[in-house]
Structures are given as structure tokens and as C-alpha cells.
Amino acid sequence: MTGTAVRVDQVSKSFRLYHERNQTLKSAIMRGRTSVHEDFWALDDVSFDVPEGSTFGLIGSNGSGKSTLLKCLANIYFPNKGTITHFGKIAAMLEVGSGFHSELSGRENVFLNGSILGMSKKEITSKFDEIVAFSGVEQFIDQPVKNYSSGMYVRLGFAIAINVDPDILVVDEVLSVGDQEFQEKCFLKFADFRKAGKTVILVSHSMGTVEAMCDRVAWLSHGELKKVGPAAGTIKSYLSSLTPEA
Ligand SMILES: Nc1ncnc2c1ncn2[C@@H]1O[C@H](COP(=O)(O)OP(=O)(O)OP(=O)(O)O)[C@@H](O)[C@H]1O
Ligand SMILES: [Mg+2]
User: Is 136 in contact with 186 (CB distance < 8 Å)?
Assistant: First the structure.
């Protein structure tokens, strides 16, 4: 059998919530070194393994910690406690436009983003046409991306991420801003990924998508892992938690 692609081990992540209303320099000085804040635990002792070659879903209500966990996976945030280990090259598609520079053209962003994701200039040049073709934004490739629609941003970002050829692809809700045709194209790409033995971790609020695509699913609620296991069972538990029994 296959091994583990990602191991999330007792991960907790807190943010400081500040309560001062008037944050002026004067009030800050008057207050001295004391500040009124509370630690808010966006992730609380979360552990699970993502099997290599699986498509793994992350579900849960708004604010339950899904994006925070993905950012920890992508090394954008660092957990306060616990560890995340990934076995292989990771590429992440997080918020719309993240990693893009709005004043630069689509073309320039392909090079910028590709190099951030670890591709050499030569590699990007050789894959450039394929990236642009997949994105479907050929006509606008020399326009600054600030004039792109949200869907166009996501198309280009996703086209770059998959061409980096990662072992593990991490995708937040973003794909839902793409139109039907693009979403179908992405799902086919995920299937190719899977055939090649690669791992996909995705967040979605569409339970139909998650059930159709994922082998295993983790459900987060208020930063805690409620359940992890085969897709159908985890989705069922999540949905029944939303509808109080009559
Ligand atoms: N940088 C930050 N500073 C302070 N609080 C944050 C920060 N990032 C996230 N949070 C808080 O952590 C909690 C979890 O947020 P997160 O974005 O992970 O939720 P989510 O499950 O992705 O929700 P959604 O379904 O709405 O995308 C929220 O209460 C949010 O306010
Ligand atoms: Mg989110």
C-alpha cells in the first residue's frame, strides 16, 4: 500500500484578538505595556494523516479553521504547537489572487509566481504556452492582472499551480469562482493527478463535489477535528450536525 503524503500532528494555531477600541498612539502609550487581548484558538489539537495518492477533503462551517489549516500546510502560518510534515513538493492555491502582483501583466505573473513555486525560468518558458492555454486568458495575458475578473485570476493561478507539477496540491474554495467549464477541466486535472499517484487536498462547501472527488474527509468545527474518515460517513455526520433532529 501507499504511504503518507502529509502528517498533521497535534496542531494548534492561535491568533490574538485585541479589544481596544481606539487604537491611537496616545492611547497605546498611556496604556503602557499592557494590552487587552485574548488568544483565540483557530485550530485546537488537530491530528490526521493524508494518505499518499488520495484526494482528501476538508469540510466545516465558516470560520471553522479550514483555510488556517491550509495556510499551515503551505507554510504561510506556523502552528503554535504541533507539527506538519509533508513528504513531497507542495503547491497551494489559496485565496483569489494570492501570490499575484496586481500591477504586473498575466505573463509577468506567470514568471513571478512560477519562480516562487520553485520553477526555473527555462522550465516556465517551456510550459508557458500550456499554462496560458489551460487558463483560457490568452487574449488578456499582457494586461495587468488588476483588470482580470475573479474567475480569470483563479484560472491563471490554477494553471500555474498544476504546471509546477507538485506531489501534493492544496486547493482552497477558490475553484468555485470558476465557471462550470473551468471547474470540469480542473476536476479532470485532479483525476489525472490521482492517476499519477499524486495527492490533492481540497476545501469545499459543496458536499456534492467533496463526495464525488474525495476518498477521505476531515470535518473541522470551531478549530477542532470532529471526524476524519471515508468521505460519505464524514459528510453525513457534518450535515446531520447542521440540522437539529426533530
Ligand atoms: N490572521 C488572522 N488573524 C486573526 N484571526 C484569524 C486570522 N486568520 C483566521 N482567523 C480566524 O480564525 C478562524 C478560522 O478562520 P478560517 O479562515 O480558517 O476559517 P474557514 O474554515 O476557512 O472559513 P470559511 O468557510 O469562511 O472560509 C476565524 O474565526 C478567523 O476569524
Ligand atoms: Mg476559508
Answer: no
Highest mean pLDDT pick, 12-26, 95-109, 135-149, 164-178 = 135-149
Atom of ligand 1 nearest to the CA of 69: 18
Residue pair 171/202 in contact by the 8 Å Cβ criterion: yes
| 77 within ligand 1 shell (Cβ under 6 A) | no
Q: What is the whole-number distance in angstroms between the Cα of residue 66 and the centre of ligand 1?
A: 8
Strand runs labelled E in the chain: 4-18, 37-51, 55-59, 81-86, 90-93, 168-171, 199-203, 216-221, 224-230
What are the chain's domains? 4-242 (3.40.50.300)
Q: Report the nearest-CA residue for atom 7 of ligand 1.
A: 15
Task: Centre a 10 Å sphere on the Cβ of residue 196 and count the other Cβ atoms it contains.
Answer: 10
Summarised one tens digit per residue, pLDDT across range 200-227 is 999 999 999 899 999 999 999 999 999 9
